[in-house]
Design a protein that fits this description.
Elements (H helix, E strand, L loop, with lengths): L22 E5 L24 E3 L6 H7 L8 E7 L6 E7 L6 E3 L15 E5 L4 E6 L9 H20 L5 E6 L12 H6 L20 H13 L2 E3 H5 L11 E2 L10 E2 L2 E6 L6 E6 L17 E5 L3 H6 L1
Parallel strand pairs: 7-8
Antiparallel strand pairs: 1-14, 2-4, 3-4, 5-6, 6-7, 8-12, 9-12, 10-11, 13-14
Length: about 300
Amino acid sequence: MACSRRDIHSSSVKVGRKPFGFLRGHAWSHSSTSSSPSCKVASNPIESRLRVACQGNHTFVKILMRALSSPPFRNYNVWWSLSDSKYAGTALFVKKCFQPKKISYCLDQTAKKHEPDGRVIFAEFESFQFLNTYVPNNGWKEEESSFGRRRKWDKRILDFVVQSSGKPLIWCGDLNVSHEDVDVSHPEFFAAAKLNGYLPPNNEDRGQPGFTISERKRFGRILREGKLVDAYRYLHKEKDMEHGFSWSGNPVGKYRGKRMRIDYFLVSEKLKDRIVSCEMHGQGIELEGFYGSDHCPVSLELSPSQIDSSQS
């Protein structure tokens, strides 16, 4: 689950000489503590013309700046979007040989300032758009800083994706929502979850943040009206109790073994036939492959388009 100690997501993209050849991406949201600093690094065994990596958290900046002077990051340019109040942040790494046409830090494309919580980096390339977001947690209460904040965000992101319908869009991040029952390990547990016995007045706001009916309905609308496809669910129709979740609860306590899929790659519908794979790279109750986080890496691969293949 998202909190003030978590960075956003990383993704690597490979683009051939023809527009938008193919893509391989990795996303990972990592909780930071004093002993486990927040870390998100793009990982791709195949050398790429373009890699995009997004990373956050103020406590990690000094370590990260040192790392930027060493391979492979010295081959990248970096754009930052940090919170005004030391809450969160994102960064975008793009390999120097392939630069975006435009970078912005706000869902309002006419604004010059970044989002106050540093939740957005949007990159426009020649033939596609790339959006990285760290979506606000819904919280547990009918308060402006909880339900109100998330409703406003969902409205803004809906408007954004609907208006960004020109070039194909790739959107990755900790989206803080599990869309369907199949996206959580224990639907009844999460639907009945509450904090200190509090029950919101609206039944559709009750339950685990990220699994309330309200959030799931709004997310469904974003997918429909934004003409977006959930890449993982497009390939994996059934629940996978071992490999099908990106977030896992604390191995000690009532959340042991309770898991959710809240990290996504969403792509424009026009790209859905190019989805080759989208996988979660963590598994099991003991958090194998989570590397100290409560989130595991998620990967996406898109194939070349028929036009690219015929011209290459």
